[in-house]
Structure formats: structure tokens, C-alpha cells
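Entry 14. Ran structure prediction on the chain below.
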Amino acid sequence: MPNQILIVDDDRAFGKEVAAFLAELGYGTRTCYSLSEARKALKASQPDLVLLDLNLPDGSGMDLLPEVLREPGETPVIILSGYGTIPVAVEAIKRGAEDFLTKPVDPEHLRIIVERVMERRRLRNRMVLAELERSGGEILLGNSPAMWKVLSMCEAAAETDTAVLLTGETGTGKQVLARLIHAKSARRERPFVYVNCATLTENLLESELFGHERGAFTGAHRLKRGRAELADGGTLFLDEIAELTPPVQAKLLHFIEYGEFTRLGGTVPLHADIRLLCATNRNLQERVARGLFREDLYYRIYVFHIHVPPLRERREDIPLFLNHFIRHFSRNLNRPEPTLSPGLLEKLQAYSWPGNVRELRNAVERAIILSRGSELRESDFPFLQESAPEPESALFRPRPLKQAVNDFKKIFIERVLESTGGNQTQAAKILGIQRTYLNQLLRSGRFS
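Output, C-alpha cells:
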């Protein structure tokens, strides 16, 4: 996906001319001719750069400048004006504009300025990646325009202490981004405490979050400090927050509002100062509508929202991940780095990757373990052959409907399990069923 540039100018001929020029350079463009149009465009999607005229029919572009800069990710702005004076240019730069160009604009000069701003944005994101690498995080983020935008939003979020909600499919790297936000924040020297809300029962989750007193329940032989208490001064990351039960949701809401909690079986209120990060692969708004998630809690955690796009929407990142994982697993397994056979990269890029980066990682690890040559081949990635279109596929051979449905479910569940590296908990989450039921299906072999 190319970088997107929003052009805001009341001169339609000039706007179209600039849009055509930038399109030739490979950028995506959208042109607006008024402040109101521009505000609607900014609400619909965040561009990578804004070219902004000062004199618009319904106000000054200077009024829009702070609104653009307040957006998560700090979209850069270049001012274009036919009424350029030094005081106006200085004021625009002071307010946060990247540059100020006077019309008529020389196309070559515009190209240089736009490329310079874009490169500055890329460098800033590389610095974020480098900082994450220094902090011990694994680089699983990508370098596509879509991920530049995500990284910019993470950097902006790191400068605040507000709650952040990371959404996206399983395996897209939400936990890595949460660690990145913490590593860039003022709390970086304090603990980063992770809780997976999907892997614990209600009682265990409450105890895990807030701790318990000795004798609070059978088996509680000693006092245990909860994750909230351990995260004091640092960051508490609640992964799969949509899985919290209503009673735990109520206690979490109280903790967010007052910084106060009570250990299970205790009576003394305790306090912890934490920065809250949450993540989910579920649609929280839908769960609120169905009464499964508290609306007041939803608005408490949905302050700064960052959506992580799936790998199929940023296929240009696949070569980067492939090279990273091939190097990583070749080194860990003490093997020479294999090359890719002709055409294999194209097939891997065409695959849908339902398990996203995690599935790609597992697939590369498996391929390197099983490969015996100096080259990875299509046969080392069995799912590519399974997913190839077969007009006379056995899946569609005539047979009773019940048997056909059973066969399809079996293949589908196996594919999801492969995408999670055999992790039944994650597979059950993707399938929307209980892990115990999935285990029962796999043991019985009956999927009807």
C-alpha cells in the first residue's frame, strides 16, 4: 500500500495538478477543497502526510494544523500558500508544520521536500525499532506503510500515560507493540507485567490480577501479590481482555478509576500506580452490545486505539519476516542459511496467512527443521500445496452432506491448529469454541 497524501487546497486546478504529480511518484492521494471536507477525510482515515493551503473558503488552514498534529501518529504537515510571508511561515513552523512552500511550487522542489519528510518519518520508525531491539524485543513488526503508521501511533502513545487498546487478529504482534510502548515510555525502568486473560479461570484470574491472602481459598497456603501490585510504577498489559468475566470486569473498572484493589480474601484496600495496556482479537463493541463486556469499562480502555493490520493486508512485509526467521532459526539450529527455490517467495506472498506473523514464524521453523538441502522448496511448506486450487478436489467429491461437512471441519480445524503451531488455546480462540470442546473433537475424530 503506497503512502497516502491528503491535499487540502481551494484551487481545484492546482489540487488536481499536485495530485497527478504525486501519483506519478507512486503516492496515493486524496484532494479536499475546504476545511470541512478535510476534517471528514481525516476522520475517515489518517494520511501519512498533509499538504495544506492556508486560505480556504471556510477558514484558515492554520486552524486545521493543530487538529492534524493532535491525531495519533503525528501526521506531518507541509504548508502550501500563495500568500507566503516570513512571519506567516515562521508561525506555521512554530505551530508544528514540517515546511512552508510558496506557490507556484516547483515540482522538483516539492518532490524533494515530500521525500525528505517521508524519509524522516521512516528514520524515526527505524529508531523505534532499534530501541525495541536494544530492549530485548523481537522484531516482528514490518516496514510497510501500514506498519509505519502503527509504529508512529505507538511512539505517540508512549509519550503519554493514557490507556491503550491494541486490536488485531491473532499473531499480528500486539504483545510486541505493547512492549515497544513500554520501552519508549517514561516507565521503561519499571516492570512490564503481562497477563493473558484467556488462559485462566475466573477465580484464578482474579487471584492472578489482584493477589490473595493466605487461606483465601483451598490451596492458598501463603500470601500472593497480584500482577497489578507487581506492576506498581510500571506497565500492566492485559492480553485477550475480552475474555474477562463480568465480576472481574467490575473489579478492574474500580482499579482503573481509583488505582485501588483488594486481594482475594482480604479486607485492606491496596494501591498501585500502573499504566494500562490492553489487547484483543475480538470485536469489543459487539460484545458490549451483547452484554458480554461492560460499556463503562470499554470506554475506560478505549482511550487510545491502535489497530494492527493482518499480514495479508501488508504482504510487502513477508520478505522481511522470511529473511529474519530464516536467519534466526538457522543460527539456533546451527545450520547454514538456506535460499528460497525459484517462485517460492511469490507463493508465500500469495498465501493468506490466517495465523499472521506467528504462523509464518512456525512455518519457517518447521521448514528449516525438515529441510535437508541448501534450498527451501514448496514441499517444505505443505499448506501451499494443500491450499492450491484443485478443480476435482476430494473435498468436493459427491457424498452425503453430513460426511462432507465433517471432512471440511476436520481440514479447517487442522489448518487453524497449524497456523498456531499446535497451540490449542489459541486455535480455540480463533474458532470461537471452548478449548475443552476442541480437545474433545480432536480426540474423537468426529467433527459433525
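Confidence is low (pLDDT under 50) at residues 387-393. Will compare against last week's run tomorrow.
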